[in-house]
C-alpha cells in the first residue's frame, strides 16, 4: 500500500507540541493546522503513533477531501473511496459528523448520506444487500468546513488520553494529554526533582514518570485498529516490541507530590499502582502551606485548584499566593502552573517569565512559567596524563 496521509488530532493550543512529538518519532513531512497535525506514513505508523503520542487525541486516516455543496456531491465523493480495501463485510462502520460554515449544515443528514454511500460501494464489492456489522469497529467521520468535506477513518477509538491507569478520578481532573504537555513544555528532565503540590489524582507525576522512563503511553491499552484485518497482528506486535525495548526503567526518578485532600491521595495511589510507579513516586496528604520540596534545580509542575473547583476565588488566590512563597524560597527551582485565574501573577507575587495559552477542556488557561537556573553541567574528568 502507498504512503497514507495521517492526521494526529490535537487539543487547541497543543498543535506545536504534537508536531514536535511526531518529529521526535522520525516523521519529517509534518504540517500543523488548527486542531490537527498531518503527516505521512504506512500502516505500521498507525500502530507506532497510537502507542507513542502523548499529547494527541487520536490518529485518523485521511480517506478523501473534496468540495461538497450538495448531498449528491457528498454522496459521490464518499462512494468513490475504495472502502472494501479497509472495511471487511462484517465490519461495524458508524458515521460521525460535524459541519461549520458550510451549505450542508445538517449533521444528521450528512452522516446519513455518507453511510449510504459507503454501503453502496461495499454492496458492489461484497455482493450483498445487508451488512451485519458485528466485527471490528471502523468509525468514519465526515467533517465539513467552508464547503470542503474531509472524510477520515478513526484508528484510535476512545481518546488517546485514556491511558488505562486512571480508573477513579478526583473532581475536575486534568487530562493525561494536558499533563504530558505541561511536562514536555517545562524544562524538566529525569535528573531533576519534580513536585506537584496540588497532585489530585496524580496525573502530572505519572505522566512525568512515563516520560522519564520513556514509556509509550498507549502500551497498556487497546485501539480500534488493533483488530483491523488490513493492519495485521505482526505490525502491532513489532510496534509493541519496539515500545517495550525502549523503556528505560533503570533511570532514577525524584518525583513526588501532595494534596490536602486525603481522598484524592487515595485515588492517586491507586493510579500509581496501576501505572507501575507505586515505589518511584512519593505522595503525601499535606496542605501547600507545609510543602517544602527537597533537592536542587527542581521543577514544580501543577494545576492549582481555582474558583469553580473550590467554590471560592478568594481561597484559590490564597493557594496561588502560597505557591508563590515556595517559588520565592526555592530560588533554584522552576515553577510551571496552569490556571485560568486572571489575577494569577498578582496573587503569585511576580510576573511570569513566560506565558502560554492552553485550554484545559473548554476552559481558557495560561501556563505560567517561572524559570529558575538550569542544573550545572557535570564536569568532565580530565584525561590522565601518560
From TrEMBL:
<protein>
    <submittedName>
        <fullName>RNA methyltransferase</fullName>
    </submittedName>
</protein>
<keyword id="KW-0694">RNA-binding</keyword>
<dbReference type="Pfam" id="PF22020">
    <property type="entry name" value="RlmL_1st"/>
</dbReference>
<keyword id="KW-0489">Methyltransferase</keyword>
<dbReference type="InterPro" id="IPR004114">
    <property type="entry name" value="THUMP_dom"/>
</dbReference>
<keyword id="KW-0808">Transferase</keyword>
<dbReference type="InterPro" id="IPR054170">
    <property type="entry name" value="RlmL_1st"/>
</dbReference>
<dbReference type="GO" id="GO:0070043">
    <property type="term" value="F:rRNA (guanine-N7-)-methyltransferase activity"/>
</dbReference>
<feature type="domain" description="THUMP">
    <location>
        <begin position="45"/>
        <end position="155"/>
    </location>
</feature>
<dbReference type="Pfam" id="PF01170">
    <property type="entry name" value="UPF0020"/>
</dbReference>
<dbReference type="GO" id="GO:0003723">
    <property type="term" value="F:RNA binding"/>
</dbReference>
<dbReference type="InterPro" id="IPR029063">
    <property type="entry name" value="SAM-dependent_MTases_sf"/>
</dbReference>
<dbReference type="GO" id="GO:0008990">
    <property type="term" value="F:rRNA (guanine-N2-)-methyltransferase activity"/>
</dbReference>
<dbReference type="Pfam" id="PF02926">
    <property type="entry name" value="THUMP"/>
</dbReference>
<dbReference type="InterPro" id="IPR000241">
    <property type="entry name" value="RlmKL-like_Mtase"/>
</dbReference>
<dbReference type="InterPro" id="IPR053943">
    <property type="entry name" value="RlmKL-like_Mtase_CS"/>
</dbReference>
<dbReference type="InterPro" id="IPR002052">
    <property type="entry name" value="DNA_methylase_N6_adenine_CS"/>
</dbReference>
Amino acid at each position: 500500500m502507498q504512503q497514507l496521509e495521517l492526521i494526529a488530532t490535537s487539543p487547541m493550543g497543543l498543535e506545536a507540541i504534537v508536531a514536535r512529538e511526531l518529529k521526535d518519532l522520525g516523521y519529517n513531512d509534518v504540517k500543523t493546522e488548527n486542531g490537527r497535525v498531518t503527516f505521512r506514513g504506512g500502516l505500521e505508523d498507525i500502530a507506532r503513533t497510537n502507542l507513542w503520542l502523548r499529547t494527541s487525541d487520536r490518529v485518523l486516516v485521511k480517506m478523501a477531501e473534496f468540495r461538497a455543496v450538495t448531498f449528491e456531491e457528498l454522496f459521490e465523493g464518499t462512494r468513490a473511496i475504495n472502502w472494501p480495501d479497509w472495511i471487511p463485510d462484517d465490519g461495524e462502520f458508524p458515521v460521525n459528523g460535524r459541519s461549520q460554515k458550510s451549505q450542508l449544515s445538517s449533521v444528521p443528514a450528512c452522516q446519513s448520506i455518507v453511510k449510504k454511500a459507503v454501503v453502496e460501494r461495499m454492496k458492489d464489492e461484497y455482493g450483498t444487500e445487508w451488512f451485519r456489522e458485528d466485527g471490528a469497529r471502523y468509525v468514519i467521520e465526515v467533517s465539513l468546513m467552508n464547503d470542503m468535506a474531509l472524510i477520515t477513518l478513526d484508528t484510535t477509538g476512545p481518546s488517546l488520553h485514556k491511558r488505562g491507569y486512571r480508573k477513579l478520578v478526583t473532581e475536575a481532573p486534568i487530562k493525561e494529554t494536558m499533563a504530558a504537555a505541561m511536562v514536555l513544555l517545562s524544562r524538566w528532565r529525569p535528573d531533576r526533582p519534580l513536585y506537584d503540590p496540588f497532585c489530585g489524582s496524580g496525573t502530572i507525576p505519572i505522566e512525568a514518570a512515563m516520560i522519564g522512563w520513556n514509556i509509550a503511553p498507549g502500551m497498556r491499552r487497546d485501539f480500534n485498529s488493533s483488530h483491523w484485518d488490513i493492519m495485521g497482528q505482526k505490525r502491532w506486535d513489532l510496534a509493541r516490541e519496539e515500545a517495550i525495548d525502549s523503556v528505560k526503567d533503570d533511570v532514577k526518578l525524584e518525583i513526588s507530590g501532595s494534596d490536602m485532600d486525603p481522598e484524592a491521595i487515595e485515588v492517586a495511589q491507586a493510579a500509581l499502582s496501576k501505572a507501575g510507579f507505586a515505589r518511584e513516586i512519593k505522595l503525601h496528604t499535606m496542605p501547600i502551606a507545609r510543602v517544602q520540596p527537597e533537592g536542587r534545580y527542581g521543577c514544580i509542575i501543577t494545576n492549582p485548584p481555582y474558583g469553580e473547583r473550590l467554590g471560592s476565588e478568594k481561597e484559590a488566590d490564597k493557594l496561588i499566593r502560597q505557591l508563590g512563597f515556595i517559588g520565592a524560597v526555592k530560588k533554584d527551582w522552576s515553577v510551571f502552573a496552569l490556571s485560568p485565574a486572571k489575577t494569577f501573577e498578582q496573587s503569585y507575587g511576580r510576573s511570569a517569565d513566560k506565558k502560554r495559552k492552553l485550554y484545559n477542556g473548554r476552559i481558557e488557561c495560561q501556563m505560567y512559567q517561572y524559570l529558575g537556573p538550569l542544573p550545572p553541567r557535570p564536569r568532565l574528568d580530565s584525561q590522565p596524563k601518560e
